[in-house]
């Protein structure tokens, strides 16, 4: 079983690789708003994933100690997503809204793919 920190480390590596590809796409093509939106959304998505990992660690600690219920930071992650969309909407000449939303989902897509690959390898 992978630990949460191992998963987070793998996610960061994959996301930084994708961000490098997005920066290359932004620099070398005429699709600057699309790649800028992917970069913006991916950065906010990485932040959201970091929040989720921190909250899950805290949740696990509180659960094992038998204390009160803890939050997983859903409101904070939702607000971060709204902030990414607000930036894309307020600067449409620089950021594409649809690609920003897609970028927000990239960490979760990578997490799903990693889970499928991990389960396939270990079964």
UniProtKB/TrEMBL annotation:
Designated name of the protein: ATP synthase protein I
Keywords linked to the UniProt accession: Cell membrane, Membrane, Transmembrane, Transmembrane helix
Subcellular location: Cell membrane
Alphabetized InterPro entries for the sequence: ATP_synth_I (IPR005598), ATP_synth_I_Bacilli (IPR039072)
Parts forming coiled coils: none
Keyword set includes Coiled coil: no
Top-level taxon in the UniProt lineage: Bacteria
Keyword Metal-binding: no
Membrane topology: Multi-pass membrane protein
Pfam families: ATP-synt_I
Record field: transmembrane: 12-28, 34-53, 74-91, 97-118
């Amino acid at each position: 079983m992978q630990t949460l920190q191992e998963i987070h480390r793998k996610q960061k590596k994959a996301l930084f690789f994708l961000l490098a590809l997005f920066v290359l796409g932004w620099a070398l093509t005429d699709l600057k708003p699309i790649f800028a939106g992917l970069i913006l959304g991916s950065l906010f998505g990485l932040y959201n994933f970091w929040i989720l990992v921190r909250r899950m660690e805290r949740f696990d600690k509180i659960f094992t100690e038998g204390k009160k219920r803890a939050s997983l930071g859903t409101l904070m992650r939702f607000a971060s997503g709204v902030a990414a969309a607000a930036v894309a909407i307020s600067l449409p000449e620089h950021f594409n809204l649809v690609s920003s939303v897609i970028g927000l989902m990239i960490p979760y897509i990578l997490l799903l793919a990693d889970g499928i690959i991990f389960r396939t390898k270990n079964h």
